[in-house]
Amino acid sequence: MINISAEKLEGKLSQYLDLVAYTDEIITASSENGNIVILSEQKYNNLMETLYLHFIPGMKERIIDGLNTRIEDCEESKE
């Protein structure tokens, strides 16, 4: 994660946006009015998907059960 001032970000905004797009780096910048976070669309979409799955009742437990299941104990999907 890169932490910079708003002034520094403003001076090189295009370069920092390219950095985020190409490397998936996260940038935090602070100004007099507060802090901001810049992240790639892919990272944002991953966060939104994680939040979505978190709020489906029982999904967290199903994911954990799946992670703890040995591959030998899995059955082939009928779909």
Task: Please give a handful of descriptors for the protein shown.
single chain; about 80 residues; alpha+beta; YefM-like fold; 2 domains; 4 helices
Descriptive notes:
By secondary structure, the chain is α+β, with helices and mostly antiparallel strands. Helix content is 51%, strand content 18%. The protein contains four helices and three strands. A three-stranded mixed beta sheet has the order 1-2-3. The model has no long low-confidence stretch (mean pLDDT 90).
In short:
The protein is 51% helix and 18% strand. The protein has 79 residues and is of the alpha+beta class.
Quaternary organisation: single chain
Proportion of beta-strand residues? 15-25%
Q: Tell me, what is the CATH class of the largest domain? A: Alpha Beta
Provide mean pLDDT, rounded.
90
Order of helices and strands: EHHEEHH
Q: Reading side by side through the largest sheet, how are the strands ordered?
A: 1-2-3
Protein topology:
Elements lengths: L1 E4 H6 L1 H11 L3 E5 L2 E5 L2 H14 L4 H9 L12
Parallel strand pairs: 1-2
Antiparallel strand pairs: 2-3
